[in-house]
Amino acid sequence: MLTIRFDRLGLQPGHRVLDVGAGFGRHVFECARRGADVVALDYAEDEVVETRATLGAMVDAGEIDIERFKGVLRGDATRLPFDDDSFDIVITSEVLEHIQDDVAAIAEMFRVLKPGGMFAATVPAWGPEKINWMLSDEYHAPKSVGGHVRIYSKTELSAKLRSAGLDVRGTHRAHALHSPYWWLKCAVGPRNDDHPLVAKYRKFLEWDIVEQPTSTKIAEKVLSPALGKSIVFYAHKPASASADSAAA
């Protein structure tokens, strides 16, 4: 299930792509399939191990070229272990809402992005996320299932991206059918995965991801502008940014 639209990033074979907070690697896998050279970074060790194993299996199965697999490592988004201007594209999906110092993380992603490069970030959209917080304190407690420390408005994150030096080029909402699932989970308890209604809705979402029927595609397109659980930001690092940073 992809949240970012890679055609809006101009992703090309051979591009160097960094996924900050890659999780279990869903966006990294797609970038590799498209011929990009991928590096995945995450703070959670178990997710790093699984992503590395999955990429290795994809290489073994011939789904991606081993040359595309540049590394999967554990690291801190506020202290990225890469040189300035290292990547053509930097993405981060459902990560910034977990980080206390999100400004430092954005600055680091800007630093390692090449001048002229593209950036994409996804975070929970304000409306659906606000309902989750209202329904469950456990959902957003720092050590909880969600572990979210803030709810972004579109204005706030746009301002933080621009303050870092990025040129924000557009946004869209995604995953409308996932918002009711999380409202339901929060209503019955975010750890209560065995609740009959939660289990039934999860099966529906899994079916939708696998089968991708026309009916739910239409529903997503119609409902996402209002109910989309995630909002995606696309931005560009100006070609003059590196020189400006050096001068500063």
TrEMBL record:
Record keywords, A-Z: Methyltransferase, Transferase
Methyltransferase type domain segment(s): 18-120
Record-level Gene Ontology MF annotations: S-adenosylmethionine-dependent methyltransferase activity
The enzyme's E.C. designation: 2.1.1.-
Keyword Ion transport: no
Any single biological process term in GO: methylation
Transferase as UniProt keyword: yes
Top-tier EC class: transferase
UniProt xrefs under InterPro entries: Erg6_SMT_methyltransf, Methyltransf_11, SAM-dependent_MTases_sf
Superkingdom of this protein's organism: Bacteria
Name used for this protein in its record: Putative methyltransferase
